[in-house]
Amino acid sequence: MSQNGLMIDYEYCTGCHSCEVACKLEHKLPTGVFGIKLAEDKPFQIDEKTWECKWIPITTQLCDLCKERVSKDKPPSCVLHCCAHCIEYGDLVDLAKKMAGKSSKTVLFSV
């Protein structure tokens, strides 16, 4: 039996919060409660000319990978609404293989 999860390439996350909003609406979560939450790695200076700021989507304990949606062959809400298309849902083994060709700023999440 395969286990599914999310692959998030946060190098391309724009910080639009669409994943948070989609999750909150899908699961009717109250203010301040999240199934997926964006963490901001504040701007910091790498060298004299280079600054970096990253948004990092992190699933919480409330994430169930939208099991109701997935049971109807629909993608999780965060995947569907990600404007940067940096969140992908699928079999963890398959996603791990895809990670091999991606940046080092890619993570896998499972529940």
Provide a descriptive summary of the structure in words:
It is a single chain. The protein is an alpha+beta fold and 111 residues long. It has one domain (4-110): 2-Layer Sandwich (Alpha-Beta Plaits). Helix content is 25%, strand content 32%. It is built from four helices and five strands. The strands form two sheets. A three-stranded antiparallel sheet has the order 4-1-5. It has a two-stranded antiparallel ribbon with strand order 2-3. β2 and β3 form a beta hairpin. The protein is globular. The protein starts with a strand and ends with a strand.
Comma- or semicolon-separated keywords:
single chain; 111 residues; alpha+beta; Alpha-Beta Plaits; two-stranded antiparallel ribbon
The ordered H/E elements are: EHEEHHEHE
Spatial sequence of strands, sheet with the most strands? 4-1-5
Mean of the pLDDT scores? Answer: 91
Query: Tell me, what is the CATH class?
Result: Alpha Beta
Layout of helices and strands:
Elements: E1 4-9, H1 18-27, E2 36-45, E3 51-59, H2 67-71, H3 77-81, E4 87-91, H4 92-99, E5 106-110
Write a brief caption for the model:
The protein is 25% helix and 32% strand. By secondary structure, it is an alpha+beta fold. It has one domain (4-110): Alpha-Beta Plaits (2-Layer Sandwich).
